[in-house]
Amino acid sequence: MRDLKEIREEINEIDEKLIELFKRRMECAKDVGNYKKANNIPILNQDRENEILDDVLVRGGEYGYAAQLLFSNIMELSRALQHNIVGSGKEMKELIENSSPNIPYNKNTKVACQGIAGANNHEATLKIFPDCEPQFCKSFKDVFMAIENGEADYGVLPVENSTAGSVSDVYDLILKHRFYIIKSLDLPIHYYLASIPQANLEDIEEVWSHPQALAQCSDKITANNYKTLQSANTAVAARDVANSKRINLAAVCNGSAVKEYGLKVLAENYENRSDNTTRFIVISKKLYIPENAEKISLCFGLPHVTGTLYSVLCRFSSLGLNLTKIESRTMANKPFEYLFYLDFTGNVKNDEVTKLLCALSTELPEFSFLGNYEEDFA
Amino acid sequence: MRDLKEIREEINEIDEKLIELFKRRMECAKDVGNYKKANNIPILNQDRENEILDDVLVRGGEYGYAAQLLFSNIMELSRALQHNIVGSGKEMKELIENSSPNIPYNKNTKVACQGIAGANNHEATLKIFPDCEPQFCKSFKDVFMAIENGEADYGVLPVENSTAGSVSDVYDLILKHRFYIIKSLDLPIHYYLASIPQANLEDIEEVWSHPQALAQCSDKITANNYKTLQSANTAVAARDVANSKRINLAAVCNGSAVKEYGLKVLAENYENRSDNTTRFIVISKKLYIPENAEKISLCFGLPHVTGTLYSVLCRFSSLGLNLTKIESRTMANKPFEYLFYLDFTGNVKNDEVTKLLCALSTELPEFSFLGNYEEDFA
C-alpha cells in the first residue's frame, strides 16, 4: 500500500495538468462562441453533446458515469461562455434595463390584500405600506384581478409558512398575470388567546381558529384540554367569537384581530415555537428593481431527465451564487415534466448575474424572471 | 478565426487527455480510501479540500470559479468512492437489511386518517385499505399519536396539492416520530356541486367549501356569480349545507361527502382543471420496503454555503438517479440553515443506491431515510 503523502503528490501532479487542459478547453469554447456568432449558428448542439457523452461513457470504463457527469458540467460551462459571447437573451436584458429603481408610494397608493381586517395579510400590508388604506379581496385571485384592472397598484400576499395558501398557488398567479415581485417581508407571527371582554381564562372550554393556527398552538390547547373548532381563517375566528357573546369561547388570532373585534387578551405568545414567521411578497404589474435588491426569484420548466436540475445549478454554483430556496412541482400535460421555483441572492447590477439570466432565458423552457427585490425583516 | 472543425479537433484531443487524467485521479482516490480504511482515518479532510480549491482558483485564472466547481465535483466523486471502500453508514445498512418486504394487512388492521367521513383523506384511505374501518383523527398530529400509542397500525396523510396542510408539516411529524413512508397513492380529486335534495341548480345563490377547493372551482363559481363562504374543509361544507335545509346553498365537495351527507349532485367535475390530483402517503412505525419499491424519500440539512446542494446532487446524478421532487426550507436556530426534502427513483436492492444512502447518512447533518416504497395511481 502506498503512503498518503505519495498518493497526494500524484494527485497534485494530475490536478495541475487537469487545470491546464480545462483552461485550454474553455479557450476553445470561446473560439466556438465567436464562430457561432459570426455564422449565426445556435449555441446548443444536442447531437454533438450526446456524441461526446457517449464517447466519454465508453472511455471512462468503471468511472464512465462519473466521467459523463464531469463532461456534462464542462459543456454546461462552455455553453455559458458562448451565450455571453453571442449576447443571448436580448429581451431579458431590455426588461432589466427598462425597470425603475424607485417603487412609487404615497397615501393614495392602493394596496390589495386577501382576507378581512385583522388577518395576518392585513398586518403585513400595514408594515410595508404604513399609510395605505388596504383593499380587502376575497381570494388571492381577486388580488391579482384588482391589479390587472388598475383598481390596485400593488398586492401583498403570503408565500411561505402561511395558513392562507401555498407558494405555488401564488407563483402560478404571478406567472399567469406576468406580474413581478418587488419586495418581501418576513413577519413574525404571534398568536393570542382572546375572548369577549366578559370572559376570564378559567371560563374557556373551546377554542376557534384556522386548522394550521390550532396546530401551531397545539401544546397549550392540549395541556388545557380545550375543545377546538376550525374556522376559515384566524380573523374570522376572532370575529365569530366576538359575535357569539359566549364566555366559554376563545379565538386563536393575531394582535390586529384582537383590536379589530374588541376582544380581551387571555394569553400572549400562544404558539408552540417562538420563531414562527411568515414570508409576504409585494406584487406589481410594472417591474421595479431597487438599488439594494438582494434576492432574485425565477421559475422554469425542466424535462424529466437525470441530471438536468443538476446542470442548471452548475451555472449558479460556478458564479458563487447562493440558492436560498428551491421547490419542484410536477406538471401534467406539458412539454416539460417539472416546474422549479428558485430564489438566489444577487443583484442584476452585477454583470455576471444579468448574463446568467439572459443565457437561462434562452435555454430553459417556460423561463420567467419573477423579480429582483429587497428583503425586509419585521 | 479558426474553423469549427479545427476547434473541435483540438477539443477532442483535450477531452481524451482529460478522461485519462480523471481515471488516474479516481484510482488515486481508491488508494486514499484503502489507506484511510487501514489507518482508521475519516474520509472528509476539509482542510485538504479547501487547500486544493484555493489553489485551483488561482491557477484557473479567468476560469477560476468554473475550475473550482469542476474540482469540487471531482472531490465529491472521490469521497463517494472512498466511503464505499471504508464501508460507511453501517446503521443505515442494517436498517435496510432488517426491513420487511410485506406490509401486513387484514380487515382488523387499524388505519388512522385526519378529518371526518367523506373527506378526501377518507376516500384515499379506502382506496389503499379497502376493507378497513378508518379511525378519524382531529389533526395530523393525532394521526401520529394514534400510531405512536399503538391505537393504529398505519396512517394515511395528504402530502401534495391538498387542502389540508403542507408537505413540510407532515414530513416534520414523520421525522419527529421516526416513522417511515411505506406507500404512496396519487388520487384524482373531482369536485361536485351538491345541495339538499329539495334544491335545483337554478335555486343556488351561495357556495360553501374550503378556500382552496373554491379556488380550484373558481371558473364555474365566477361564471355563475355565486357568493362564496369558506369552510374548514370540503366535508364540513357538505355537512353544514345538509344541516342548513336551505335550497339556495350548495357545497363544493367530493363524491364520498355527497353520499355521506345525503346531498343531491347538481354538477360533476366542477374543478377548473381535470388533472387535479392529490398525493397521499401511508406511514408506519416499522419500516417495510416492498420488492417493487420505486421511490426513495430523504431529508437532510445543509449549511448556507454556495454549492452545497449542487455537490449533493452530484452524487445522485453520477449514478443516473432521477430526482422527482425537491423542496428546501429555512431552519431557524439550527447548526445548518436549510432542510431539504428529496424524492428520487430507485430501490435499495440496487447495491449502488444502498451505498449512496450509507455514504450520505455519514456525511450529511440531520440525514433521515424516510422510506422506499411503491407508488400507486388511482
From TrEMBL, chains A, B:
Enzyme Commission code: 4.2.1.51
Any one biological process term the GO annotation gives: chorismate metabolic process
Domain ACT: residue ranges: 297-374
One Pfam family named in its UniProt record: PDT
Localization in the cell: Cytoplasm
S-adenosyl-L-methionine among keywords: no
Listed InterPro entries: ACT-like_dom_sf (IPR045865), ACT_dom (IPR002912), Chor_mutase/pphenate_deHydtase (IPR008242), Chorismate_II_sf (IPR036263), Chorismate_mutase_GmP (IPR011279), CM_dom_sf (IPR036979), CM_II_prokaryot (IPR002701), Preph_deHydtase (IPR001086)
Keywords: Amino-acid biosynthesis, Aromatic amino acid biosynthesis, Cytoplasm, Isomerase, Lyase, Multifunctional enzyme, Phenylalanine biosynthesis
Enzyme class: lyase
Reaction equations catalysed: prephenate + H(+) = 3-phenylpyruvate + CO2 + H2O; chorismate = prephenate
Domain Prephenate dehydratase: 110-285
Alphabetized SUPFAM superfamilies for the sequence: ACT-like, Chorismate mutase II, Periplasmic binding protein-like II
UniProt GO MF annotations: chorismate mutase activity; prephenate dehydratase activity
A GO term from the CC aspect: cytoplasm
Residues in Chorismate mutase domain copies: 1-86
Source taxon at top rank: Bacteria
Site for Essential for prephenate dehydratase activity, residues: T278
Pathway the protein contributes to: Amino-acid biosynthesis; L-phenylalanine biosynthesis; phenylpyruvate from prephenate: step 1/1; Metabolic intermediate biosynthesis; prephenate biosynthesis; prephenate from chorismate: step 1/1
Its biological purpose: Catalyzes the Claisen rearrangement of chorismate to prephenate and the decarboxylation/dehydration of prephenate to phenylpyruvate.
Name of this protein: Bifunctional chorismate mutase/prephenate dehydratase
Organism of this sequence: Ruminococcus bovis
